[in-house]
Amino acid sequence: MIEKTIEKKPVTKGLYIMQGVLLIGWIAYLISFYLFYKEAYFYVDKRLPILLKVLSFLNSNWNEMFIYFVLSFFLFTGTLLLSYLLYFTYKSAQGPKMINLFLLGLNILLCLSLLININGFPFAVILILAASLVYIMLILSKSKFGKEVSQYEEGDVIEIKGPFNTQEEAQEEVIRFLKSWSKAKVVLDKDIYLDSDNKYYADIFVEAIKE
């Protein structure tokens, strides 16, 4: 009997690689931004109210800040999306939980690191926009996945493999198919049988649909 429930391929390694790339991007960004910020803020009149300080800073350095704002949007979006995936693997018990918790905390600190300067409010607005985009992406993704799952009913034969000369060949082909199956909530099973032509065939069907 083969494994019925289709498990997703391990994704934690890929997530950790993405986290590493993202972390390098954050470090480069923060070093560049705060070196620029330290020099630019030096020329801002410290006697001004906070709002006028922000306006003065942006007015004098708009070209540079526009680039930093755009880059921060991409960093925020990537970080929030990756954080959701890490949280998902944490809840589903995939991968080391302590590492996932550490990375989630690190991502929170990275996002907050851009809110501790006089441009904190613009960065907070960008963070909210990035979070909204990630939320919309996840809703659309779940909606699409739900539609795909709703196409199936228990007992549906979704694939017929064959003919094969031996039962072992049929078994191997079924295993290959199951490994490539991406709909984790659709639980599959198989029925291998010898047909009237003395060849083996495999019916792959839906055994259950997880809620």
Descriptive account of the structure:
With 211 residues, the chain is an alpha+beta fold. The chain has two domains: 12-149, no CATH class; 157-209, no CATH class. It has six helices and three strands; from the N terminus they run αααααβαββ. A three-stranded antiparallel β-sheet has the order 1-3-2, with helices on one face. A hairpin with a 5-residue loop joins strand 2 and strand 3 (200-209). The radius of gyration is 26 Å and the shape is rod-shaped. The two termini are 24 Å apart. The chain crosses the membrane at residues 15-37, 65-87, 99-116, 122-140. Keywords: Membrane, Transmembrane, Transmembrane helix.
Keywords summarizing the entry:
2 domains, 211 residues, single chain, 6 helices, alpha+beta
**Domain unit count:** 2
Roughly how many Å is the radius of gyration?
26 Å
Low-confidence stretches: 1-9
Going by helix content, strand content and strand pairing, the class is alpha+beta
Number of helices: 6
Helix content: 55-70%
Distance between the termini: 24 Å
Q: How do the strands of the widest beta sheet line up side by side? A: 1-3-2
Strand content: 5-15%
List SSEs in N-to-C order: HHHHHEHEE
* Average pLDDT level: 86
- The strand count comes to 3
The rough form would be described as: rod-shaped
Oligomer: single chain
Largest sheet: 3 strands, antiparallel
